[in-house]
Design brief:
The complex is a heterodimer of chains A (about 50) and B (about 240).
Chain A: H1 8-50
Chain B: H1 9-40, H2 55-82, H3 85-117, H4 125-146, H5 150-177, H6 198-241
Classes of the chains: A mainly alpha (about 50), B mainly alpha (about 240).
């Protein structure tokens, strides 16, 4: 860990917020992608069954 | 082969199926390298102390906030002129990434500003135009959600995107237009006298590459999701008619 001196709180909170926002966006995008993919698969299967 | 062929959803899905894993791996590698290098292995600045490490998040996020809007502008124009659905969906997919980048830029800038300027916020031209850009992003996302008909939503959000582009440009050039305010000039400049020191420049470029690749990976993933969501809407509409 580098010595951040008197600005440690500022630097760590900036990195904390930035990384949380990036990871949050990535997780939300992945979750929606998985949900929509599954939903489409179900609907397409239903259509195939119904002919 | 023309680029317009990829406006076909099936071709777009097939291409991105191969490209997305590569872009994802590259973006994670570049982001980790750039941020670890910037945080752990760069010296303190003689004026800013350790707060200089914040630029590795702030500068790429701010650049992406503007560039994402420019990308949305281009894809919106493609929609308005050529009516390719993939381009409208790509603009829709990019907006949440842009709003996140704007938030990161605003938060990290405020955190850096407190020890350096003595305040979290000032009504400086660049800060204010960035705040307006943030509001435009929120308005753009809200407009997409508010309109049920996807083509009408694409039309109206494209017009909003054109209007918001004024603020995206202002955000980039506000420091040059008005020679006032707290925000300094660009950190990266072709003029060596005005650019940042070598010790910070290389990790900053790696972070810029990482943020750009992250955007590319996320926008491809989200556009694929939007294409699938549109297909679901079409199938449900067909079921209702049957």
């Amino acid at each position: 860990m580098p010595d951040l001196g008197q600005y440690a709180t500022s630097v760590l909170s900036a990195y904390g917020i930035g990384i949380v926002l990036i990871i949050g966006l990535t997780i939300l995008s992945l979750l929606r992608a998985v949900r929509i993919k599954r939903q489409l698969k179900n609907i397409e299967n239903r259509h195939k069954k119904d002919g | 082969m023309s680029i317009w062929e990829y406006a076909n959803p099936t071709k777009f899905m097939r291409l991105t199926d191969r490209v997305l894993p590569v872009v994802t791996v590259l973006s994670v590698a570049a982001l980790l390298t750039g941020l670890i290098w910037g945080f752990f292995f760069t010296p303190d600045d003689y004026k800013q102390g350790s707060t200089v490490k914040i630029i590795f998040l702030h500068v790429p996020a701010a650049m992406m906030a503007i560039n994402v809007w420019v990308m949305m502008l281009v894809t919106s124009l493609v929609w308005l002129i050529r009516r390719h659905h993939v381009s409208a969906l790509a603009a829709k997919a990019a907006a949440p990434i842009g709003v996140t980048m704007t938030l990161i830029a605003l938060f990290t800038g405020a955190i850096w500003g407190q020890p350096m300027w003595g305040t979290y916020w000032a009504w400086d031209p660049r800060l204010t135009s960035f705040m307006i850009l943030f509001v435009f992003y929120l308005g753009y996302i809200a407009l997409w959600s508010a309109i049920e008909d996807q083509d009408t939503a694409a039309d109206l959000t494209s017009v909003l995107c054109l209007v918001g582009s004024v603020f995206a440009l202002l955000s980039r050039y506000a420091v040059n237009f008005w020679n006032q305010g707290l925000h300094q000039a660009a950190s990266l400049s072709l003029d060596e006298g005005q650019s940042i020191a070598d010790a910070f420049r290389t990790p900053l470029f790696v972070c810029l590459a990482g943020f750009t690749l992250l955007f590319l990976a996320l926008v491809l993933l989200r556009t694929r999701t939007e294409i699938r969501a549109r297909r679901i809407s079409a199938l449900i509409a067909r079921e209702r008619l049957a």
